[in-house]
Amino acid sequence: MPPLIEVRDLKFRYEDGTPALNGVDFQLEAGETVALLGANGSGKTTFVMHLNGLLRGEGSVTVCGLAMEKRNIPAIRARIGLVFQDSDSQLFMPTVLEDVAFGPLNRGKSAEEAMAQAKAALKTVGMAAAASRAPYHLSAGEKKRVAIAGILAMDPEILVLDEPTTFLDPPGQRALAELLAHLPQAKILVTHDIPFAQAISNRAVFFQNGTIAAAGSVEDIAIRFGWDFALERTKSNR
Q: Can you list the positions of beta strands (E) in the chain?
């Protein structure tokens, strides 16, 4: 089978001329979970923003067999679900159920279909009992699950999660790892959290100065480049 995502020689500069990506090659296979590791500013987030057309650079990006071209972007975005670092940026409706149903409704589903998909997604993430609650009453871990449910309700083939363990305590991190490990979608994790990445990732790539400097298991990458970057987020939260 062809890869779900294939990126070749991707380059990007910001408007002020700052280089962000300097020739990135990357593949994501069906069923894989790949961790994107590296220091802040190394190009990880800029890279994933190219996967659904939020940024456009030089080189080629193909998602689920679709070339990243203007005419294909709606279809590509239907296949990739992006879970933001801050769940509050994705939760804005009065109730959890309405929030999760928003995406399917926005894509033309009937109210009945959208609600059915939302309820199924909430059940998948273990949040069915919270359907009538207001999102702002939820804990950080619950908000993260609801944000993921909102993406799952749109039936994507790929999940991209940006720093998914931010704001989560250790029990919340373990619960999220268990949830993600059981979801069938291929996944890309942008993270500094080495133990979390190691728990659920098949492999890792290490971004450095806008390129992928190394690829391998999470443990191999962590050993090769040292554990300091793995502690960066922990230190910043002290």
A: 5-13, 19-28, 33-37, 58-63, 66-67, 80-83, 158-162, 186-190, 203-208, 211-216
